[in-house]
Specification:
This protein is mainly α. The protein contains 10 helices and 4 strands; from the N terminus they run αααβαβααααββαα. α1 packs parallel to α6, α1 packs antiparallel against α8 and α5 runs antiparallel to α6.
């Protein structure tokens, strides 16, 4: 129960609205719905990767431009997916009674994240997609098979953590938005760690190891995979052989996913 109480504290909506300064910030965010012009930055800069400066500058020249609205609607799509997945799981009866309280808490968090993003976007919020958690041709059955439900929960949470990280740079032009995105990001990371442990895995990711179906390898791969050992332009491989080796290096750093990589994963479950 300590974990549940911790999550409830971290996601309490009073964190967003209790203080006057917080409410003012929220009202600032809601101004997006009133047609405020938003600055666009190169999407390549959104990925806080460990690649060299030259590679980063190359990414910055990419044609795609992500505005703050793009990023917020991107986050909203992910939160919609998680919100519906957990709501359907709770309604289905597939969840083990010992785990029910955890997933009820996580589901409540996703509800609050959706409400917050809808409030931030106002009339600019994208419509909720139609989801198919069978994965189409994958023929998954998460609401009748608990191991499948748990596997998808881990996949969605691990994807969410990397997705928010990948867009942090895109919100660097607005400190208020960045602050709120990071608040959601840290809670998603707590979800991911808890679900991973419930599945018998470590709370963190070592190399790109996972026990999910092969179709979801992209969750731990991508342009900068979780097996990456280069940080800040320095290759740390082989430097800590007495302290866990390269596995420990990769576990110490979470890597981002680009928006395109995340959408490719999410679209498996969007009709």
């Amino acid at each position: 129960m300590n974990f549940i109480k911790l999550l409830e504290t971290l996601s309490n909506k009073e964190i967003l609205n209790a203080k006057g300064s917080r409410r003012e910030s929220f009202n600032h965010i809601k101004s997006f719905g009133k047609g405020v012009a938003l600055a666009s930055i190169p999407f390549g800069l959104a990925a806080t990767s460990s690649k060299s400066k030259a590679a980063t500058m190359s990414m910055a020249s990419a044609a795609f431009q992500a505005s703050n609205l793009d990023v917020l609607n991107f986050a909203l799509k992910l939160e919609y997916l998680e919100q519906e997945f957990y709501a359907m799981g709770l309604d289905s009866g597939v969840i083990d009674s010992d785990d029910m309280a955890v997933f009820q808490t996580i589901s409540t968090h996703e509800d609050e994240h959706v409400k917050f993003l809808l409030g931030a976007l106002g009339d600019n919020a994208d419509a909720k997609p139609t989801f198919d958690f069978t994965g189409g041709d994958l023929n998954l059955d998460p609401f009748n098979d608990y191991p499948t439900f748990m596997a998808l929960a881990q996949g969605f949470e691990d994807t969410g953590v990397r997705a928010y990280k990948g867009q942090a740079g895109a919100l660097a032009n607005d400190g208020t938005l960045l602050e709120y995105a990071l608040q959601i990001h840290s809670v998603e990371a707590r979800h991911a760690s808890q679900v991973r442990r419930m599945r018998g895995e470590k709370g963190w990711i070592t190399n790109s190891e996972n026990t999910l179906p092969s179709q979801f390898a992209g969750i731990y791969g991508g342009e900068t995979p979780e097996s990456n050992t280069v940080q800040g332009g320095v290759d740390l491989a082989g430097m800590f052989t007495n302290f866990g080796g390269n596995g420990a290096v990769t576990a110490a750093f979470d890597e981002p996913l680009t928006m395109a990589e995340v959408i490719k994963i999410a679209e498996i479950f969007i009709v």
